[in-house]
Structure formats: structure tokens, C-alpha cells
Design a protein that fits this description.
10 helices, nucleus, RAI1, RNA-binding, metal-binding
Length: about 375
């Protein structure tokens, strides 16, 4: 294969078969492994200080004029350079918890794929995505595949999307608290708080994934009937108009509702909170909605089976074309062209501008070998 030669995969994400609609791949319930904080500028912090709890007033009645707010949402950091530094730093801080030895010779991560939740969300939406393309950077190193999003050019976000993001940021300022069941303390409209990321693992068709995802914690009443083994209940906060036409509902179910469902399902969120906004841009009610209901309302528009079957096929393809090269420097750029539904990849062998496995991570794997061997001997 020539360097940077485009290879088109034999995948047609927009072609949905009857089997895709009826058979669901094996999928394990998401497991949580703690989490970490991310600063407003995207830097890893080895603590949970930025965890926030959603506080919803009794009966869900609120009165927030979103149009009057001077809040500016945290600028999303578009990864022009691929990176998984945050989750790798979290794994490094956990000693040998996410590592294993192979024949007591080399140390490797004990999962098949390391990525971010954004990677999973992009892939799972692909069968129904006709507008937004994506590119992923992929490296195989010591039998584990690492996948990071990468934006090759600045995206052209619509004004409405930018406005919705600012409205959600305004709601977060009003209803996110540092402590459960506590009213949020007032803070400046321009103050940025960063984000808490949970670390999760799932198994799909035998492939073990570990990833991080930004999540909100839910304030659970002290008298609530919660299972003792439930350490944390996560949720999400979204907005939508309180009055939509048939066409607007169709567009919402096809796009936003699918994004909400995928974001929740992969981390095990069972309920989200939706703030309803009237034509005067006033958020007046927050309703708790089950993720299952989101699916039931949209099952004639999209099916989870289709999303996960496509993902399973794509992962099989990734495992196939990365099988011959196990190198921390080599990167494959996998691209989905949304309009024609084409998926292709290019290989960048050796070190390049896309290499994203940090040197400190490789050194850490070597340094943990003796620890793993010693723990094995104790057992």
C-alpha cells in the first residue's frame, strides 16, 4: 500500500437491511470506573472537583429568560491534532488497574479499544447521518486500538446551533450545583467551570471499550428508593421548544432525539431532563423523561439495532486494516463522507503530524511491568 493512498471500505452505512433492524449485537451494561475533571481549556485534572449535580425545583417549574443572558458557553476545543491525553492520564493515575502483561514480557492496556464518547456517538449516528461528515485518527499499539476524533478544518456551525449551546450553558449556570440536593450558588455569567468526565467500559460483540464521557450527576432525594450498589446516577440537561409543528417534530426526532438517546445509552443514563422554551425564549418547565421513552417516540424514524450493527461492522473493519501494523507512531485517518455515505482510510506510517500516542504513556507501560509481575506473584 502506498503512503496516504485512499482505501475505500466495503461498507454502505446508509443501506439498512432487515437483519440490521431485527438483530442486536451483544452489549454489556456500561460499567463506571470513577472519573476526572477537565479545566475550561480542556486540561486533565486528577480530581472530581468539577462534578456538578442537577438541581430541579419542585414540580419542575422555572422562569429563566435565555435571551437576556450574557453567558457565553465554553468554546469547544476542536481537535485539529488528535488526542486521548485526558483518559490516558486518568489510566496512568490508577496504577495497574487498566493494564495486563502478555506472557510476562510486555505490558498492554486490558481493553481492546480506548476512545472518547464522541467517537462512539459519531459512529453510532452514521447510518442516519446525511449531512455531517467526520474523521477519526486510529492507532494500534500493543494489541489495543486507540481512536480519537480529529477536525481537519474548522467546522461551520449554524447560528441556531451556537445559540442553543449558549442557552444550555445558561441553564447549567442556574441549575447545576457543587453538592447534591442543594441550590446552586450564584456565579458570574462569564465564569467558566470546566466539566466532569466519567470513565466507562462496555463490551460490544466481545470487543471491550473504555472511554470517557462528560456527564452530570443527578440529585437524588434522601428518601428515594435507590439500590445500595448504585454509586452515582448520571443524567443530562437539554432544551427544546414547547410548541413544534409536525415537520419540526420530525426533524427533531431524526436528529436531536437520536443524539440524546445515543449519548445516554452508552453510559447507562436512564433519564434526562428537558427544559421547554417558549417563543419568548423563556425556559419555563423542566421535565424528566426516560431514555426508553425517547426511543419509543422515535422507533419509526431510527432503531438502536441499526446503529449498533453498523458500529460492530465498522469495528471489525478497523481491526482488520490495523492488524498488520502495531506501532505507536503509525496513524490511520478514517473518514466518513456523509452525502454519498462513503467510508475510507489513509495510512500515515511512522511519526507524522497525526501521531497522538504520547511518549510518556509508552514509558509508563514499561515502568509498570514489575508492578504487574509482583501483583501476579502475590496472588
Amino acid at each position: 500500500m502506498m503512503n496516504h493512498e485512499e482505501i475505500i471500505l466495503n461498507l454502505k452505512p446508509h443501506v439498512i437491511t432487515q437483519e440490521d433492524r431485527t438483530v442486536f449485537p451483544t452489549f454489556s451494561k456500561p460499567q463506571t470506573h470513577g472519573g476526572f475533571s477537565v479545566s475550561p481549556d480542556g486540561k486533565f485534572e486528577k480530581n472530581e472537583n468539577r462534578k456538578r449535580y442537577l438541581f430541579v425545583p419542585p414540580m419542575g417549574q422555572i422562569q429563566v429568560h435565555l435571551g437576556d443572558s450574557e453567558a457565553r458557553r465554553s468554546q469547544r476545543l476542536h481537535l485539529l491534532q488528535p488526542s486521548l491525553d485526558n483518559i490516558l492520564l486518568y489510566m496512568e493515575g490508577k496504577g495497574t488497574a487498566f493494564l495486563q502483561t502478555k506472557d510476562q514480557i510486555s505490558v498492554e492496556v486490558n481493553h481492546d479499544i480506548v476512545c472518547s464518547s464522541e467517537v462512539l456517538e459519531l459512529i453510532l449516528r452514521t447510518p442516519y447521518e446525511k449531512e455531517e461528515s467526520w474523521t477519526l485518527a486510529i492507532t494500534k499499539y500493543r494489541n489495543t486500538i486507540y481512536i480519537s476524533p480529529v477536525v481537519l478544518s474548522e467546522p461551520n456551525n449554524s447560528p441556531m446551533r451556537e445559540m442553543n449551546a449558549e442557552w444550555i450553558e445558561t441553564l447549567r449556570r442556574h441549575f447545576l450545583s457543587e453538592k447534591p440536593n442543594t441550590l446552586p450558588e450564584p456565579r458570574g455569567s462569564m465564569e467558566q467551570t470546566g466539566q466532569y468526565h466519567g470513565v466507562f467500559s462496555v463490551t460490544i460483540n466481545g470487543k471491550r471499550f473504555i472511554f470517557d464521557a462528560p456527564v452530570l450527576a443527578e440529585s437524588v432525594p434522601n428518601n428515594a428508593n435507590v439500590k445500595p450498589e448504585t454509586k452515582e446516577i448520571f443524567t443530562d440537561l437539554q432544551i427544546r421548544p414547547d410548541n413544534m409543528s409536525v415537520d419540526e417534530w420530525t426533524a427533531h426526532n431524526r436528529s436531536q432525539a437520536l443524539k440524546w438517546w445515543i449519548k445516554c445509552f452508552i453510559v447507562g443514563i436512564e433519564n434526562i431532563h428537558v427544559a421547554y422554551v417558549n417563543r419568548h425564549i423563556i425556559a419555563h418547565t423542566i421535565e424528566k423523561i426516560s431514555v426508553r421513552k425517547i426511543f419509543r417516540d422515535c422507533e419509526t424514524v431510527w432503531l438502536p439495532h441499526v446503529c449498533f450493527n453498523f458500529m460492530a461492522r465498522l469495528v471489525d473493519n478497523i481491526c482488520s486494516f490495523t492488524s498488520s501494523v502495531d506501532c505507536h507512531k503509525t496513524v490511520y485517518l478514517l473518514t466518513f463522507d456523509a452525502i454519498p455515505g462513503k467510508i475510507s482510510y489513509k495510512c500515515y506510517p511512522g511519526r507524522s503530524q497525526f501521531t497522538f500516542i504520547p511518549d510518556w504513556f509508552r514509558i509508563m507501560l514499561e515502568e509498570r511491568k514489575e508492578d504487574l509481575i509482583r501483583e501476579a506473584n502475590v496472588e
